[in-house]
Write a structure and sequence with these properties.
It is a multi-pass membrane protein. The chain is mainly α. It has 6 helices and no strands.
Length: 198
């Protein structure tokens, strides 16, 4: 395996570069998935039937907490990548662990939010609006949950193997995934919650 010392560690081999390119293709597919969910939501948002509307069920305080937590986790994982590029493995691991803790806190808020929706009568069966809402939020939440487990596996590899071209590549790809989830959340916050509260 030929290592190019002039490049950042995550790009330092041809295989690493192909892995990153392949992941960008995967991100393109994920954009299509969430684009489809958003399109479905916008078509169905006014089809509430006898059920509640967004203005009836959305609570700004938990949503602001979720947004702050997830955006903070994007910052901490960015610090993790910065530490990786400086060769500070321990600092990188701690920033990744902090990112995953924030991810778990975010998921906890989302579980609370789903329980609130069910309590006020907004389930998958209530209306087309609630079905589209819960499907979109649930898909994002499932992605974050998967990301937490994936991140735990990467932290384990970093502890076991240290910082190598392979672990750096995996860590960088994971950071791209995490940032992507944060971008999706910004769209959810802006076009589902804020728009739905007015």
């Amino acid at each position: 395996m030929k290592i190019d010392q002039s490049l950042p560690l995550e790009y330092s081999t041809q295989q690493n570069q192909l892995n990153i390119l392949g992941f960008w293709v995967f991100i393109g597919a994920e954009i299509m998935l969430f684009g489809t969910l958003f399109a479905g939501y916008f078509v169905l948002v006014d089809r509430t039937g006898n059920g509640p509307t967004g203005a009836d069920i959305f609570e700004i305080t938990p949503v602001l907490f979720e947004t702050f937590i997830l955006l903070t986790s994007s910052f901490t994982i960015g610090l993790g990548i910065h530490a990786m590029r400086k060769g500070y493995t321990k600092a990188m691991i701690w920033f990744y662990v902090l990112t995953l803790v924030l991810g778990v806190v975010f998921i906890s808020f989302e579980v609370y939010e789903f329980m609130h929706y069910i309590h006020v009568g907004a389930s998958l069966q209530t209306s087309a609006f609630t079905a589209a809402l819960l499907t979109t939020l649930g898909t994002h939440g499932a992605h974050v949950t998967f990301g937490v487990f994936w991140g735990m596996f990467i932290v384990y590899q970093l502890i076991q193997r240290g910082l190598t071209p392979e672990t750096a590549n995996k860590s960088f790809i994971f950071s791209l995934y995490w940032h992507f989830l944060d971008v999706v959340w910004i769209f959810i916050f802006s076009f589902i919650y804020l728009k739905g509260m007015v």
